[in-house]
Known about the structure:
By secondary structure, this protein is an alpha+beta fold. It is 40% helix and 28% strand. The chain is built from three helices and four strands. It has helices at residues 13-21, 48-55, 67-84, and strands at 4-11, 29-32, 38-45, 61-65. The protein has a four-stranded antiparallel β-sheet with strand order 2-3-1-4. The termini are far apart. The mean pLDDT is 95.
Amino acid sequence: QGEPVKARLRFAPAASRWVREAHFHDSQRLAELPDGELMFEVTVQGTREITRWILGYGADVEVLEPPEVRQTVTAAARRMAGMYDTPG
């Protein structure tokens, strides 16, 4: 739901295999990078679903665009890291 949003993501080699085999969206485009990384571009309606999908890849994905998704993922990563900064 929402306005069309173009997302651009860079996946680490460890996740590239799984992303290549997955079909997230009909508009997705993949580009192999020389170092084994994978560039993933897609246009989606709204950002809620793709943000949850991105978070599932943890540190093996970097959000390049859009800035608002990058900020949301950054905030979630900080919250998660904070949970593990203190013992039990």
